Amino acid sequence: MNCNDHDFLFLDESERLALTRRTFLQRAAGGMGLAALGSLFGGAPRANAAATMLPGLPHFAPKAKRIIYLFQSGAPSQMDLFDPKPGMAKRRGEDLPASIRKGQRLTTMTSGQKSFPVAPSMFQFAQHGQSGAWFSELMPHMAGLADEWAIIRSMHTEAINHDPAITFFQTGSQLAGRPSIGSWLSYGLGSENQDLPAYVVLTSFGSGRKDDQPLYDRLWSSGFLSAKHQGVKFRNKGDRVLYLSNPPGMNAETRRETLDELAALNQQHFGVMGDPEIQARIAQYEMAFRMQSSVPDLTDISKESADVLAMYGPEVKTPGTYASNCLLARRLAERDVRFVQLFHMGWDHHGGLPTAIRGQCRDTDQPTAALIKDLKQRGLLDDTLIVWGGEFGRTIYSQGALTETNYGRDHHPRCFTTLLTGAGVKRGITFGATDDFCYNITENPVHVHDLNATILHLMGADHERLTFRYQGRDFRLTDIHGERVKGVLA
Amino acid sequence: MNPPRSFRFLACLSFVGVWCATPGAAAPSAKLSFNRDVRPILSDKCFQCHGPDEAKRKGGMRLDLREAALKGGEAGPVFVPGQPDESEMILRILSKDRDEQMPPPKSHKTIAPAELAILKRWIAEGAEYQSHWSFLKPERPPVPEVASAKSAVRNPIDAFIIERLAAEKLTLSPEAEKTTIIRRVALDLTGLPPTSEEVAAFLADSSPDAYEKVVDRLLASPRYGEKMAQQWLDFARYADSNGFQSDTSRQMWPWREWLIHAFNRNQPFDQFTIDQLAGDLLPNPTRDQIVATGFNRNHRLNGEGGRIVEEWFAETVIDRVETTGLTWLAITLNCCRCHDHKYDPITQREFYQLFAFFNSNDELGVLDEFGGAGRTRAGGNSRPVLALTTPEQETRIAQREKVVAEATARVAEAVRELPAAQAEWEPKFRQQVSENFKTWTMLEPREVRSDGGAIFVRQPDGSWLATGLNPPFDQYLTVAPIAAGSFSGLLLDVFPDPSLPNQSLGRNSNGNFVLTDVIAEITAPTLEKPLTATFTRAEADYNQKGYEVKLIVEAPPKAGRNARKRQGWAIDGPTKRDPRKAMFVTAKPLTVPEQATLRVTLRHDTLANHNIGRFRLSVSALPPAGLTLDGGKVPPSIVAALNVAAAVRTPAQRSELAKFYRENTDNPVKRAETALAAAKKGVEDSFADVPTTMVMKEKPEPREAFILKRGEYDHPADKVTRGVPASLPALPPGAPVNRLGFAQWLVSGEHPLTARVWVNRAWEQFFGTGLVKTTENLGSQAEWPSHPELLDWLATEFVRLGWDMKAMQRLIVTSAAYRQSSKVTPALVARDPENRLLARGPRFRLNAETLRDQALAISGLLVEQIGGPSVRPYMPPAVWDETSVYGDMRNYKADTGAALYRRTLYTIWKRTAAPPMMQLFDAPTREICTVKRTITNTPLQALVLLNEATYVESARVLAQRMLLEGGTTPEQRIAWAFRRATGAEPHADELRILTAGLEKRLTRFRNSPDEAAQLLTVGETKPDPKLDPIELAAYAVTGNVLLNLDRVVTRE
User: Fold this and answer.
1) What's the half-sphere exposure (Cβ side, CA atoms, 13 Å) at B979?
2) What is the DSSP letter of B928?
């Protein structure tokens, strides 16, 4: 038998049963010493993904093998970045017309405001590339890739505050308890790497607003799916993966010896109890040992060329920055990690938006573009899907004082912009449109469920068929909604 | 329809071959059972469109009721009993026409051939229905007579298990070894392994009831309640934080403590239920009974900026309904918040009737503390709360309340004394006024400090000269004592100085300054919060055009077209170098208590480097209205009144003067009022260290409840009143129609679900899998029970025994089924891979809490102390802080001393960043009610057990004890620790492997003693200095191996 046929990484009961029953019978018949056990784990690093996929998946040929999801937490202002509204300049300071607002609810941060003065963006927009896509001056590097993007200007969502909205984006529900999109993909598609988790999360604080919205474990939680599908958050301080390092004084050699000792004892006990679970545990300890070198290897960027490092910008060597995380994302993609999710905080600009958004764009513009170029030059962009966006948009009206140099914007769930590129995405297009006030969608609305359906589709999963029975009901990421957005598919 | 006995038919059934959890084909001779064989197919494949949900029903056809199915829909009757081939259902399933085909292709559901066969046979047999089994009251089945294996039967449980096994030609496994069974039952009942002494005593006890004695000892142990509480904390979504966004702290540990004690004193489950759901509504409830209602306050509470209160109030109540439904009924009511249930007979209306039981708590439904400013991120409990005072605290509070009463009386007395005091004051004041009364009193600051690094030098005239750095936007803080009495205004004198640029007044290169804002606060020992002055009037002897001083005190700049920055006060410094003064006057004077301090901040935010160069501050206690830059005057009307003999003053003069006196001087009333404020603060302070806990408290008038369309708070439809679903029994006669009645309904003994749900989960706790595997759902979509009759026997037994939880657990753990060996044979794995028939004992990994507790217990580090606030054991850096800069749950610092070694259920729990070790071992996030944890096996778990500080420290402390208590040879010491860790003696092979490993490490550490020394640094406890560090380190690694053994992390 050859354990490389199986992903021992993260097993739950039923899978172990199916797997270990077979190995049990073989082993019980043939017997197997410790020497043979040692060779179980020395094979190729790449697991056979088919072995860890759900039966029936992929539902159709996938366009993307993996995703790098660049989540911009706090909600970037669409009309200052991607959705220019030149007509607003002459309406500066005018009250938002009731015919536009249509009585839609506001957060309690501005619902008490006496007026809703229109705040035109103070940033210059220009068209770029063959596609003539519009970008503001804040995003020069992303604009340089104008022909790579599918820019969806007509995203909309249901929640109006961060916590439920970001939870909704990740899990398809505003309330806690549902699996995140990465967990769904880990559950459905399994892992392509035997030495790293299928779902990795990287976080960074923005410099635009240092005290911005927090993140929550639930955003990468597996909800009711087996806990093995939860995202593994790489830490920015201490061990990258929790508890990865041996205690001080325990070097790798000592650790190796203890694991051999442990395996021998467990194997001995297996002889008495006969429970195949014991052998699964031996395998997981070996996997843990491999992670002790695979993770440092992953995060060691000392061999990256100067050109590559320069491309990501000056912060690339500082752990916990967006730039550093973008480079890590590429390295994870190279290792076929299924779902890499970056969360960059700091986009919640209720006041002081012009200064704050400059900081955010300085953090993210260059590294995002570098990541895409880097993937492209390595041939990885063709089977990697990239998503860039936040949990909702922002209001055209100013929250608080509107001056020549300053304004703020409140939450706006009715329309915002999300960008896609990479595998299976129609490049160089702008999809959907909003009204003159960037307040309502006028063309091709794309709901969060639609986006999630599209992402699953590109990964080879039908969002209506990727289900899990829990509490008697077949749950899915998109609840009972969602249509894939054909207009952005290549 | 006469409800049939739910499980009677099963006795004659027999399954051969691999036993499968889902209902397979019944033996050909037996008649099909609707509930076991047919309902699961219809429920899963058909009910979504043809079930209880009327709004979504397709083609007018309903399949979950026989009458409705016979009546049929647009396409006629669903089936013709007895004639499957002429039945629409079968024809549709067989149809190849995509428009006709059932289930429709877009549902992605298909009927398997075996399922089709069952449906055909069921129709052929007459298409009879049964109500869903779990909605029928369990009837007590007879205990089977087991002829063949009578001797194996220890109690009725075994009769059911053995009968079922016999049908498969299987038997129970032999009893587990004594060392195994004592460890198993100790871990199951107390969450801790037995001590070596307890194992030895059990081995030495040859009496027939030796095991039962162990069980009784464990059930009586205080550790039992802690173990039982663990799972209930998951149900109750217990945590120490509020759960949304900045996720601030809360205090619910008094409820946790109540819970542990409730288990330990074996409170019957019916009372346990009533106390938690409605303790507050009982007649004369005890404090414990009110604390118990915290069960339904453990939900998250939203405190996010901008959250809409109505929205989250609705979510709070819905969470309660869902949690209560899942915990006691194991049905998923949450489907019904938006629509009628797809599978179970519960309507959306009924959901909101349940909602109406839980929506009248006297609460906001969101965090109380949020407040208008949006800056309160300190956390805390939201009303209703209960203060849990100790008798000593109550005495102290009573004393301080007495002081308040006295101070209140003193105020009244002072009011009476006031005229006399005024009469005494008048002549003095008259003289003061005539002697050119001094309005402004110069401050003598204790400190004058710059935010940006400037250094102030005091000048002989009491002014302060800024020197050194001149940062772009500086803030000056002046801290000075201020006399008791009144504070009505501030005078700012600014002077030129030769050392300043342009020898002018400001520090900018041209000699100018712009003062943007002035903030004055008064602090005092008796003040809880500083008093902040609100200046409403500002005047200066010179104003630069566009930079008038009044701009500082005007309303904040408006938004909109005319919006502008706060400009501030400037003085044309480049051209004019005269001393300037500005005054800032309050609308109403502040009362300054004794020992007060004034803190004045001068802000320069308008133009870079435009900071003041040399200044002096003075204050006034005179009435605001009279203040002028040059020293105020007492209002002429007061002077006039003063100068008239009291007897001849007009009533207006009398009252004006009295008012002036009372407001502007140090007088008996003012003093008495200050004392009263201090006394009141004393009472408040005495509550500061009194723990509170959130509880339920019914509003006098119930809130109205409405069906919410699509479950949305802002789409109310019909009004509803409290009620229970029609498919379940009615409220007990005479029960009040409130939470209390609802709780009584659950535990009346008539309810078909409550007892079944509890015994099924108890079974899961001890056997790893419930009799119904889906312990989270006993509704229509539930898995068919592995032992239906045993489930009902246990459910009725539970009620018969007066809901005695310990008695039921004792029954289970003393059964032969529980006591059998968990050794696995290939044949058994092949026959019953999931071990649902229980031909062997279950073997499964310990949960997160037990793993850590066990390591602490084996090493002897465990601190056995019940209850109290949560503790902070070791945690890797920044787990709380990498994703949040908000709230009071940040900057985690581990506790020291005993708190590091408490049982894991006391670990502080922040929901948005839950204890990582717990998360890795499958604990839920505690954001919502979770009634079941999966058991995974991942490499991240191996990393925890190998490297986490508690485990490494435990290994080292175990090593120390090996050396000090375990004997003199390596073999003795290792065997000693092996017994502590596993309960058993090591096998010769095991001892050989461990001894060889130890030898290797001794050599290794001798060669690198630094590494040995490093290893001993992990954890707060210090190694015994008498021990050889090399030896100790080598044994510590052995300890690490022992704590990681599969048989140690597994309960077998």
Assistant:
1) 17
2) S
Pairing of strands A384-389, A66-72: parallel
Q: Answer whether B248 touches A (CB < 8 Å).
A: no
Q: Show the tokens assigned to B410.
A: 């003193």
Angle, helices B348-358/B309-324, rounded to nearest 10 degrees: 100
* C-alpha to C-alpha distance for A400 and B348, rounded to whole angstroms: 42
Burial class for A61, CB neighbours closer than 10 Å (0-12, 13-18, 19+): exposed
As a residue count, chain A comes to: 490
CA distance B960 to B958: 5
Q: Could you give the CA distance from residue A434 to residue B6 in angstroms, rounded to a whole number?
A: 60
CB-based contact B293:B696 (threshold 8 Å): yes
Phi and psi angles of residue B479, each rounded to the nearest 5 degrees, phi first: -120, 120
The band of B150, judged by pLDDT with boundaries at 50, 70 and 90, is confident
Backbone angles phi, psi at B597, to 5 degrees: -125, 135
Please state, in angstroms and rounded to a whole number, the distance separating the CA atoms of residues A436 and B133: 60
Helical axes B788-800 vs B754-767, angle rounded to 10°: 110
User: How far lies B191's CA from each of B202, B299, B407, B902, in Å?
Assistant: 18, 26, 55, 13
φ, ψ (nearest 5 deg) of residue B78: -70, -40
- Taking the model in full, what pTM does it have? 0.80
Give the separation between CA B483 and CA B463, rounded to whole angstroms. 20
Q: By C-alpha distance, which of A76, A77, A81, A70 is closest to A134?
A: A81
State the number of CA atoms in the 13 A half-sphere of B731 facing the CB: 17
Radius of gyration of chain A (CA): 24
State the pLDDT at residue B555: 66
Contacts of A249 in chain B (CB under 8 A): 1010-1017, 1033
Q: Which of these, A352, A398, A222, A354, lies nearest to B938 by C-alpha position?
A: A222
Using CB atoms, pick whichever of B305, B560, B928 lies closest to residue A402.
B560
pLDDT higher than threshold 80 for residue B5: no
Is residue B26 within 8 A of residue B37, CB to CB? The reply is yes
Residues 36-75 of B with CB under 8 A from A: none
pLDDT at residue B73, rounded to an integer: 80
Q: How far apart are CA A77 and CA A90, in angstroms?
A: 20
Query: Minimal CA–CA distance to B985: which of B201, B177, B174, B173?
Result: B177
Structure tokens at B1027: 């021990």
Residue pLDDT, tens place only, B691-739: 899 999 999 999 999 999 999 999 999 999 999 999 999 999 999 999 9
Contact between residue B1018 and residue B1011 where contact means Cβ atoms under 8 Å apart: no
Instruction: Determine which helix (DSSP H) or strand (DSSP E) holds B232, and give its type and residue range.
Output: helix B222-235
Longest alpha-carbon distance in chain A: 84
Q: Find how far residue B2's CA is from the centre of its chain.
A: 46
Tokens of A232: 């593994």
Check if the beta carbon of residue B582 is closer than 8 Å to that of residue B461.
no
Residue B701 burial by Cβ neighbours in a 10 Å radius (0-12, 13-18, 19+): exposed
The answer to whether B308 contacts A107, with C-beta atoms less than 8 Å apart, is yes
**Closest by CA position to B294, among listed B390, B223, B363:** B363
Q: CA triplet B133, B139, B142: central angle to 5 degrees?
A: 120
Q: Please count the CA atoms within 13 angstroms of the CA of A281 that sit on its side-chain side.
A: 26
How far apart (Å, rounded) are the C-alpha atoms in residues A387 and B805? 53
Residue of B558, B922, B946 with shortest CB distance to A227 = B922
The first and second tokens of residue B323, run together, are 């949690």
Strand B440-442 relative to strand B614-620, pairing: antiparallel
CB-nearest partner of A471 from B776, B822, B1001 = B776
Q: Are B796 and B750 in contact (CB under 8 A)?
A: no
**Backbone φ and ψ of B868, nearest 5°:** 95, 175
Cis peptide before B391 (omega within 30 of 0): no
